[in-house]
Structures are given as structure tokens and as C-alpha cells.
Amino acid sequence: MTNQESWRGEVDLEPGDLIEIFRKGYQHWAVYVGLGNVIHLAPPTEYAEAGAASLKSLWANTAIVKKEQLSSVVGTDHYCVSNKHDSRYAVRTPDQIISFAEKLEGKTMKYEITTQNCEHFCNSLRYDVSRSDQVTKVIWLGMAATVALMLI
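Request: output the structure for the sequence above.
Response:
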């Protein structure tokens, strides 16, 4: 499925789709597993509409793999299907994605914002590649700001 935005669940979802949820200040990620459910890597304090408290939870060092209703995870935030790396990496089948995700459900995992966050987790499930574009973007912006300051 291509990227589609939704303000209130108007997107056609297919099992294995990556869901990008637009929180205040960052994006949370989940994998759609069917019947309105997603599996996501959630810091212990992650909950819908968490706002600043959720942003603080990003600094936790562990996270829990949870299966929840998409509507509960999204809350009042906007979201979209974001299978943006389908043309770059081999995509696992929906059955493989769901199987890997469900085997991890309920497990506590190491969580590190720069190397093992919810976006890394979801990309690993779909593509077997751990990556986070939002972390890469922040690193590049930081480097650009540093260079700009050096030139002043």
C-alpha cells in the first residue's frame, strides 16, 4: 500500500502495513496486524494522547511489545500508512511480518532512541532492516547546525 493519510481511520489498511502516528514533536510507529489491531514497541509510559509525558518516555531504556487497537494507540493524533521503503528493500510477506511481530508480543526489549526505537522495530519487522528516518534527520540537522555555527 502507498502512503495514505487519515484523520479518523479513513485509510484502507492491509496486514503488514507500517503506520506512522504523528505525536507532538515526534512520530510513533506501529505495524498493522489486522482486525483493527497494531503491534508496536511502546515505552512503559506510552499511551494515546500522552503528549509531553509520552515524549519524556522516549528516554526510557526498555520498552514493551504491545498489541492494541489502532484507535487506542492513535487517540486523537493523525496517522498514515508509511511503507516508504518498499522500493528500496525486500518486503517480507504479511504472514511473515505478523508472525515475527506476534512472537515478540508481550516481551520487554531494550529501547534506545537513536538505535532501537519504535521506527527501528517496525522497519525490522517489514524489511529486516533496522532504520529510523527521524533519527537520521535529527542527526543531519544537528550536523548542519554545527557547520553553520562554525562558518559564522
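The helical segments are 52-57, 70-74, 94-104, 118-127, 133-151.
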